[in-house]
Automatic annotation (TrEMBL):
SUPFAM superfamilies: beta-lactamase/transpeptidase-like (SSF56601), NTF2-like (SSF54427), Penicillin binding protein dimerisation domain (SSF56519). GO terms for molecular function: penicillin binding; peptidoglycan L,D-transpeptidase activity; serine-type D-Ala-D-Ala carboxypeptidase activity. Residues 356-668 form the Penicillin-binding protein transpeptidase domain. Residues 1-21 form the signal peptide. The keyword Membrane applies. InterPro entries: Beta-lactam/transpept, Beta-lactam/transpept-like, MecA_N, NTF2-like_dom_sf, PBP_dimer, PBP_dimer_sf, PCN-bd_Tpept. It is an enzyme of class 3 (hydrolase). It is found in: Membrane. Keywords: Membrane, Signal. It holds the Pfam family Transpeptidase. This is serine-type D-Ala-D-Ala carboxypeptidase.
Length: 673
């Protein structure tokens, strides 16, 4: 027995020493706890590190679930928790709390939050094991937070920036409209619901679903639709129905309606897909977002930044709320365009709903004064709520008002002829004064062309045909012969000087570039002839077409088109395209085209318009005739403050390109007033 006792004592001592060696210090426990905290692992913190007293006072839901939700509500990012290290050699008494200072910092949607707090660890036994545990309280979430307090998060909506024209006239603004609603107890005639639904472009079922919402009471105003402020007739019919009312509300407004629709676009409720993509930018499911046009392209500039306030609602009676963090709302930027709203509307109205497009530029700066697609939708309809039937009607309209034509490219027809002439003059192959003898309605170089022949509209043009007559009579044969004289390579290189084949550098707008042909080359003499008068595979964007006439007014310089006002000095896109003499020659001849030619509708007595008409034939292989798109590119010969390019589809039954010249003339009249 005496021999066994020393062995037992040795084993007991070894066990005690081993237990002492495995025991965690308060600092080690706090370090592990802080590690979980930095990872927002609140469940682990609750289950493994809190004192029994803390767990009795706060349930897991109060501790873990609440903090997880608060981090989402407050937009917490970059959470960082540290603690002040104790002095080296600190002795810890298990009968006394181990006190530390912790530092907490985080970024929230309302701004950064930083604070310090004292934390105590107690030595106690839990589940037959003794260790150090954190005595927690709510002030570790936010400073001054106590049991029973609530954390509030309020959001101040930023105002969306407006879009104005060059003169500060709004074309997309924050205005007001009306919310249309029903007070259930006052709607005494249920048979009126179909009429209400029809006026709002909705269904009786949709109205009933809103009236059946849980919060609805008989005497409450229940919103069922919206109406724009200028929709007086429809609003009048609605509010005349007993039980239906209208309340003024903030609303995005597009004062020029369809005239600027494809330029401004519109805003709408954020989709689930967009919300998922943009959730890191602070969007919520109730936000509006740009859906088309500049509203979409300028979303980051227009949106602004909402204000946010995080505060503590104290449980003590009469206690004032405590603001933890606050960020003021930053309203969106007001974006000023180079567009002239008067010209934009004049151009749109002059087209009378005919399918087509128009663009206008300031030749001395490249500033875009108008960018029109006709016909168009009314963006205000999307703001007030468009029914599925109405949207389907727009989509199925044969004139395709939802299609943005100024973003596309089309065969330019004879509107290209001044460009062809300028290339030939600069190449030394075209003498403006030299006449060619051209007889008959069609022509081909020789029999190697097979069945292909160039046709002209006015075979009665008197010989010899010089450049002046060729432009006045728009003689395709003359320009085909001149193109053959300069050759395929010279003509193609000349077109590239006018930026054919290049992206159109109009800020954020996605415009289809102009092309010489599908592969950028001219593969045959027949294609060369066709291309000389804007046919073949040639396609031109309407804004680029207006820009290509700039060198005639600037003596050889073409500016990059600009849509945003005052951001920078004009940028030269192409220079030294032609000489001052060539520019002067083309200018004077374009005045003759209007004065003596077939654009008499633009030959105004008080405004000396110069320009070139064009008719692009659109016919399938084997067809002898087809649709024709009409063009007119023009400027005031005495005061060329703008160039206006206009194209109207299917003018074959409306007098051809002179039909377009008449529309352009109306723009000059309206902008001169």
């Amino acid at each position: 027995m005496k021999k066994i006792l020393p062995g037992i004592l040795f084993l007991l001592l070894l066990a005690v020493l081993s237990a002492c060696g495995n025991k965690e210090t308060p600092e080690e426990r706090l370090e592990a706890y802080v590690g979980h905290w930095n990872k927002s692992e609140f469940t682990e913190m609750y289950q493994e590190y809190l004192t029994e007293g803390t767990k009795t006072a706060y349930s897991k839901e109060d501790f873990a679930d609440r903090q997880e939700q608060l981090q989402k509500d407050m937009g917490v990012e970059n959470l960082k928790v540290t603690y002040t290290k104790p002095e080296k050699g600190t002795k810890w008494d298990q009968d006394e709390p181990a006190d530390f200072t912790i530092q907490v910092s985080m970024d929230t949607a309302a701004g950064p939050v930083e604070f310090e707090e004292k934390v105590a660890l107690l030595y106690e036994e839990q589940e037959k094991e003794k260790n150090w545990f954190v005595e927690w309280d709510p002030s570790y979430i936010l400073p001054d937070l106590e049991q029973g307090d609530e954390i509030g998060v309020s959001r101040t909506k930023a105002k969306r920036g407006e879009i104005t024209d060059r003169n500060g006239v709004p074309i997309a603004q924050n205005g007001t409209g009306y919310t249309i609603g029903i007070v259930p107890e006052k709607l005494t005639d249920e048979s009126k619901k179909p009429e209400i639904a029809s006026l709002l472009g909705t269904t009786v079922e949709a109205i009933d679903s809103k009236l059946d919402q849980a919060w609805v009471k008989p005497d409450l105003f229940v919103p069922i639709g919206k109406a724009s402020k200028d929709d007086e007739e429809r609003i009048g019919k609605l509010v005349a129905i007993p039980g239906v009312g209208a309340q003024e509300t903030e609303m995005r407004v597009y004062p020029y309606g369809p005239a600027t629709a494809h330029l401004t676009g519109y805003i709408g409720s954020i989709s689930a897909e967009q919300l998922e993509k943009l959730k890191d930018k602070g969007y919520t499911q109730t936000d509006q977002i740009g859906r088309r046009g500049l509203e979409s392209l300028l979303e980051d500039r227009l949106r602004g930044e909402d204000g946010m306030k995080i505060f503590i609602k104290k449980s003590a009676e009469g206690a004032d709320p405590v603001t933890v963090a606050e960020k003021q709302a930053q309203d969106g930027e007001t974006v000023r365009l180079t567009i002239d709203a008067v010209m934009q509307k004049a151009a749109y109205d002059s087209m009378k709903g005919e399918p087509g497009t128009a663009a206008s530029v300031d030749p001395s700066t490249g500033e875009v004064l108008a960018l029109v697609s006709s016909p168009a939708y009314n963006p205000n309809e999307f703001i007030t709520g468009m029914s599925g039937d109405r949207y389907k009607e727009l989509e199925e309209d044969e004139k395709n008002p939802m299609f943005n034509r100024f973003a596309q490219s089309y065969a330019p027809g004879s509107s290209l002829k001044p460009i062809t002439a300028a290339i030939g003059i600069e190449a030394g192959t075209l003498d403006p004064a030299k006449g060619l003898t051209i007889n008959g309605k069609t022509w081909q170089k020789d029999s190697s062309w097979g069945a292909y022949r160039v046709s002209r509209l006015h075979e009665d043009a008197p010989n010899p045909i010089d450049l002046n007559k060729a432009l006045i009579y728009s003689d395709n044969i003359y320009f085909a012969q001149q193109a053959l004289a300069m050759g395929r390579e010279t003509f193609a290189e000349g077109l590239k000087k006018y930026a054919f084949g290049e992206e159109i550098p109009l800020d954020a707008m996605d415009l289809t570039p102009s092309q010489i042909s599908n592969d950028g080359k001219i593969g045959s003499e027949g294609q060369l002839a066709d291309s000389s008068f804007g046919q073949g595979q040639m396609l031109v964007n309407i804004l680029h077409l207006a820009t290509m006439y700039e060198p005639f007014l600037t003596n050889g310089t073409m500016y990059e088109p600009v849509l945003f006002l005052g951001e920078e000095e004009p940028k030269v896109w192409k220079e030294n395209i032609l000489s001052a003499d060539t520019a002067s020659t083309i200018r004077s001849l374009l005045r003759n085209v209007v004065k003596d030619g077939y654009a008499q509708s633009a030959n105004l007595p008080d405004i000396p318009i110069a320009g070139k008409t064009g008719t692009a034939e659109l016919k399938a292989a084997g067809e002898t005739s087809g649709k024709e798109n009409g063009y007119f590119v023009s400027f005031n010969a005495d005061h060329p403050s703008f160039i206006l390019a206009m194209m109207v589809e299917s003018v074959e039954d409306n007098g051809g390109s002179d039909y377009v010249a008449a529309m352009a003339a109306e723009v000059y009249r309206q902008t001169a007033e």
